[in-house]
């Protein structure tokens, strides 16, 4: 399985830029439209995003993706790192290691 990761920005402007760059690189690499196959994606996000169906459901229902979220203790850790570190400009090596483990 190929592992990729993307932490979207906390605002739409930065997320839009990330997705634009990814889509341009994908188009360049794959040469345009390619048939889509069903696949699984991992989701690391705020607790609300991981635990409620509004985002997971859209990925599943509209894009035929199997969405994998961490178990409850790891969801709490991911959520806390987002709000207690990333949102205030802090990055800790221990958090990097935990994200890689998850």
List the helices and strands and how they pair.
Blueprint: H1 12-30, E1 39-42, H2 47-51, H3 53-63, E2 65-68, H4 72-84, H5 93-101
Parallel strand pairs: 1-2
Question: What this model shows, in words?
Answer:
The protein has a domain at 36-101: Rossmann fold (3-Layer(aba) Sandwich). 56% of the residues lie in helices and 8% in strands. It is globular and about 40 Å long. The model has no long low-confidence stretch (mean pLDDT 83). It is mostly helical and 102 residues long. The longest helix is centred in the first third of the chain and has 19 residues, at 12-30.
CATH topology category name of the domain at 36-101: Rossmann fold
Taking all Cα atoms into account, the compactness measure Rg is 15 Å
CATH architecture of the domain at 36-101: 3-Layer(aba) Sandwich
Topology order in helix (H) and strand (E) letters:
HEHHEHH
Helical amount: 55-70%
Rounded mean pLDDT score: 83
**Strand fraction band?**
5-15%
Strand-pairing-aware structural class: mainly alpha
Biggest beta sheet summary? 2 strands, parallel
Question: How many DSSP-defined strands?
Answer: 2
Quaternary form: single chain
Shape: globular
Tally of helical runs: 5
End-to-end Cα distance: 15 Å
Unreliable segments (pLDDT under 50, ≥5 consecutive)? none
Write out the strand line-up for the largest beta sheet, numbering strands in chain order. Answer: 1-2
Give the CATH class of the domain at 36-101: Alpha Beta
